[in-house]
Inverse folding.
């Protein structure tokens, strides 16, 4: 883990990249922020999480870091022992932004587990049209184990666009939380998609027929391979993190549009 701290006092705001080593955008965004951001008030914490996995260009070395929180300092595997060290640095932060990329098609989107007022500000203050409520899913991610935390899927893994979008969005995030001094953030309403379940993937050539947040009509096939044909039976389902080759064991998730988050009053 690499930590760069700027400024002093409160608020203390954190941006963390490189949780997954095969997603270089997060590290690049953190480095660009460290070179370009002038902290006007409070403390900015910039973190590159998983340096060995980044060096090896692999998602993780022993275990998926974003499935190991809160972790265990005495564990033998690298990520399980790293998670509590990261948590100790983030403890008490007023707002946290975790950067990710994926193999699914645009648009970028945010993810939260618990919609606090701080999370509402973070999400409506960033240029995303969609946010995924992942509170029904596993509880071992960074955003499910730290208060006032959101994740941001900035774009396609390995693309320059993911870096540029993430940089703009991270600056907006720092702006709404006061790190950049006097600034009037532009808040916008954001559509909420509640994630419901993972869609398993098996053997054979995978095919995915719908993009993220595109409604799958009842009776249509979302995805298939030699083992599975995922035909949806009810209206209103939308894919989240949909991709053919992004994950070994899932095509993505099914979600449902359940409302919207309004800008803070
Ligand atoms: Zn990731």
């Amino acid at each position: 883990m690499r930590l760069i701290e700027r400024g002093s006092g409160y608020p203390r705001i954190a941006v963390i990249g490189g949780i997954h080593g095969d997603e270089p955008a997060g590290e690049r965004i953190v480095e660009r922020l460290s070179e370009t951001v002038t902290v006007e008030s409070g403390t900015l914490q910039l973190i590159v999480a998983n340096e060995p996995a980044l060096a090896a260009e692999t998602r993780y070395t022993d275990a998926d870091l974003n499935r190991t929180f809160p972790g265990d300092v005495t564990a033998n595997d690298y990520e399980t022992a790293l998670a509590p060290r990261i948590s100790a640095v983030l403890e008490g932060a007023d707002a946290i932004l975790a950067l990710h990329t994926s193999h699914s098609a645009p648009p970028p989107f945010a993810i939260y587990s618990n919609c606090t007022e701080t999370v509402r500000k973070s999400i409506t203050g960033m240029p995303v049209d969609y946010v995924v409520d992942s509170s029904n899913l596993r509880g071992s991610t960074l955003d499910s184990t730290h208060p006032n935390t959101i994740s941001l899927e900035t774009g396609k893994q390995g693309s320059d666009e993911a870096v540029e979008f993430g940089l703009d969005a991270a600056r907006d995030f720092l702006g709404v939380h006061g790190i950049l001094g006097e600034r009037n953030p532009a808040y916008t309403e954001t559509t909420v998609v509640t994630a419901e379940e993972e869609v398993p993937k098996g053997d054979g050539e995978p095919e995915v027929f719908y993009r993220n947040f595109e409604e799958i009509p009842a009776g249509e096939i979302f995805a298939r391979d030699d083992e599975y044909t995922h035909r949806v039976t009810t209206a209103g389902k939308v894919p989240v993190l949909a991709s053919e080759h992004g994950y070994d064991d899932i095509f993505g998730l099914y979600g449902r549009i359940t409302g919207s988050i309004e800008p803070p009053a």
